[in-house]
Amino acid sequence: MCRYARKTYKSHYTCFKCRKSFKQTDTYDILSRIEKEKIYHQPDGTIRDVGDVFTKAKKEELDALTEEIRARKIKCPECGSLMADLGWDFKAPKKTAVKEWKIVEGLFVIGRCFHSCGCDGIGYVPQNPKDYEEYLKNTLEEYKSNVLSGQSQTVTEFPGKREYIQFWTRKVSDVKAEIIRQKFEKA
After folding, report:
1. Hey, which of 84, 117, 134, 155 has its CA 20 to 30 A from 72?
2. pLDDT tens digit string along 142-186?
3. Is 88 exposed, middle or buried (0-12, 13-18, 19+ CB in 10 A)?
4. Is position 6 within any domain?
5. Are residues 151 and 92 in the same domain?
6. How far lies 45's CA from each of 5, 40, 86, 184, in Å?
7. 85 and 27, same structural domain?
8. Which element (helix H / strand E) includes 14?
9. Do 179 and 140 meet the contact criterion of CB atoms below 8 Å apart?
């Protein structure tokens, strides 16, 4: 069973500027807590309103609160910059490990975060610039392969072809930009 299934965990929010990580309650957990407070589940599986919770005014209030929680931005307590949600499994490098922080920031830029169900862990994380360069090149080839596989199918075979190709093309661009940003390859 997934280790995150029975207990709520806090997500790691990271400030790349200060090279610090702080834990915050996940949006999903906040919403689940609010929902549990507002709804009573009967033993037979039916749901019954508790008190006047679901009057029209209360429902609108709950919807507004939900949107506010989903749109929340976590700011660094030190510098005030927006923090990145790197997930439950993130383990921050030491503050003095500048190269490792640069790698973590690069992984975030290309869309890699440390969210998992806890069963298999987060997978491979490069530890030094040479490994990171190799990781980016392999990732770029994998993403290009995904674009080609989408292009080789017809729209009748794959109705979501256009969105699929656009998604992987954006990912290819992100990885190329990161390779240039890390100065592994000149533009």
Report:
1. 117
2. 999 999 999 999 888 888 999 999 999 999 999 999 999 888 765
3. buried
4. no
5. no
6. 20, 10, 36, 57
7. yes
8. strand 10-15
9. yes
What are the tokens at 49?
Answer: 């309103």
State CA 16 to chain mean position distance: 16
Its pTM stands at: 0.72
One domain for residues 96 and 163:
no
From CA 20, how far away is CA 108, in angstroms rounded? 15
| Domain finish residue from 110, 145, 166 | 110
Domain assignment present for residue 124? The answer is: no
**Which range marks the domain in which residue 167 is found?**
129-182
For 54-97, the pLDDT digits (tens) are 556 666 777 787 788 778 788 999 999 999 888 888 888 999 99
Mind giving me the DSSP string for 117-164?
Answer: -SSS-S-----SHHHHHHHHHHHHHHHHHHHHHHHTS-TTT-TTHHHH
Q: Is 9 left (phi over 0), alpha (psi -120 to 50) or beta?
A: beta
